[in-house]
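Appendix B, Record 12. Input sequence as logged:
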Amino acid sequence: MKKTILITTALTFMLLSCVEEDYFGKSQYGYINTIEVINQSGAASIMRDSLLVTVEIPGGVDLTAISIEKIEISSFAQSNKIQGDILNLENDDTIVVTAEDGSVYNWTIRAFVASETPQLDNWQLNDWYMTATNYYEPGEDAETTIWGTGNQGTQILNILATTPEDLGNDNLAAKMMTMDNGSLAGTFGAPISAGSLFTGYFDPDNIDLSDPEAAIEFGTPFSGRPLKIRFKYSYVPGEENKDRDGNHLSYGDACDIYALLEIRQGGEVQRLGTAWFRSDETQNEFITQEIDFTYGELDSSFPAYMYPENNNYVTPDVADFGLPTHITFVASSSFDGASFAGAIDSILIIDDIELVYE
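Logged structural output:
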């Protein structure tokens, strides 16, 4: 199953390979850039000015034995805690990060009980921030946002396939458009960019020319069991649906909008819940769409594209009662954009991505 995100990785790789970094002296930085712990609900809040990290933990979880699932710190720094170590968050705990120049930073790690009915941060999509390279991305800022787009891979071509859409009355939405990358990009097998919105982030260190999604880290920490996902959308597919070689396809383009509830532990990802909407129908006006979550294994009545890789599902008892550790949400203007296939000028606009619990 492919997540429909399109990034012009070939040209991005060319650009990055031309950049040289001069480094003088020893680094003074001792930041925690990313941290995830077991049973975390929602993205951690990392405040550099006060050296404070706060994480949401669901009620009923033993706070005295919270294991670190992932931690990333400043380059050249060292930490007294690594992946797999245990934090006692019944009260504040401390992670000590030592910068390359010897500066010591004592980070406070604090837990609070999460809501039983959590929503995605910025689910109304009203917050957008300006990046250092002068384009907008969803969220309050780069450090705290749970949202990503394919723009970081395409803006070097002056192509922004995902942009804020002003709906009036201080209401913003996300507009995704499948765009022509031009003849140069086409020679690298990347003729189009499909507009995309997803939970996760773009990691330029993982660019792989053979895999356009290798630089995407999908998903964000989450702990809740919603019954449905509800959103508002409009969609107009482009006129000519083509594959990456420019051949006309016998079927039209379609938008993809889906949410996956996952349990991630020990490097393994198991599917807990699935909610998926794919449509090739023209929808000029905004409408509200609701999609049910199906918990556990998908049977043969569901299309194959909804299945997880290697059919890796949770066990039936976990499907009935378990909480996810992560949610992956994806929306794209072309369902097969990850294979560089789609119709130029397909336009998807989405707003108010709400999780429904009753």
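The two ends are 29 Å apart (CA to CA).
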